[in-house]
Amino acid sequence: MDIETLLHFQYIAKYKNITKAAKHFYINQSTLSRQLIALEQELGVQLFIRDNKRLELTEAGVVFSRGCDLFIKHMEVIIRDTKSAGKGESGVLRVVTPGNFGNILHQSLDSFKKNFPDTQLLIELYNFSEITSAILYDIYDVGFTYDFATSDNDEIEQIPVAEDDFSIIVSSKIAKEPSEEHIAEIVKSLPLILPTYVEPPFIKLVMYELRTLGGMKNIDTIYLNTSDSVMLQISLGLGYGIVPTSLTHTKMSDDMLTFFPISGFSTKSKIMMLYKKSNPSKLVTSFVDIVKNISKFDTGSFPY
């Protein structure tokens, strides 16, 4: 029994006539008749009631036809997926990111799914300082992180796709409008809460400015294991933080936090896309090309 035999059976059942089914497949009627007899012998049941030139399905034939239809569709999917895999157009693409970087992620994923509908996309969150290692050890295929959190490695390709700056944030219950007076009071009354992993290069300068603004020698600083823990503490009014602006906007609603822009010096950081150079997958190279086309980072424009 093979798929061709099952298809022939389906069309005999559809036309209720062997001659019409034979014409549909451009084969001899006698060939189709012998094939049907062989199928019934293999199954050990009668599939059709033969009444002159008209054929009607038996109860066993109805059951077989129903299951046969599902089986054929399932095999068609398997064959399609197998062919797609052979062309490198299916499988799983694993993407890792510290959060939603805005439109670039949405647009890239939407475009990728349209081009590769048979590919499963897995998107996971990770601390941005650990993403380079996760790509290096093949835990993920493509990653996004900040330039200061990457490490020099000849095996990893690093492509800038966007920029993000940093802001000082506090719970909107503590301060609704950003101002220097508010920041000074916040620095004096609340601890600075930061994640334990890699700090951006300008963080010490920001902390120096905060100490000056608050008239303090030292800032009470608390370090937590994850950025999500930092955000939770800050949203509950237990401290303030120095965070990437765009990334934080996508994680927390604006009515929960007040953002204080940092002025006087640049806090811009590049958002980098990472992938392993030795990964030859068509899925990876196609996704990378999609992100590069959407970001247009080299022209100075980026759709946030």
Automatic annotation (TrEMBL):
Keyword Transcription: yes
An example molecular function term from Gene Ontology annotations: DNA-binding transcription factor activity
Residue intervals of the HTH lysR-type domain: 1-58
GO cellular component, one term: protein-DNA complex
Pfam families from the UniProt entry: HTH_1, LysR_substrate
Keyword field contains DNA-binding: yes
Keywords: DNA-binding, Transcription, Transcription regulation
Superkingdom of this protein's organism: Bacteria
Record-linked PANTHER family: HTH-TYPE TRANSCRIPTIONAL REGULATOR CYNR, TRANSCRIPTIONAL DUAL REGULATOR HCAR-RELATED
Family membership: Belongs to the LysR transcriptional regulatory family.
Name of this protein: LysR family transcriptional regulator
Originating species: Sinanaerobacter chloroacetimidivorans
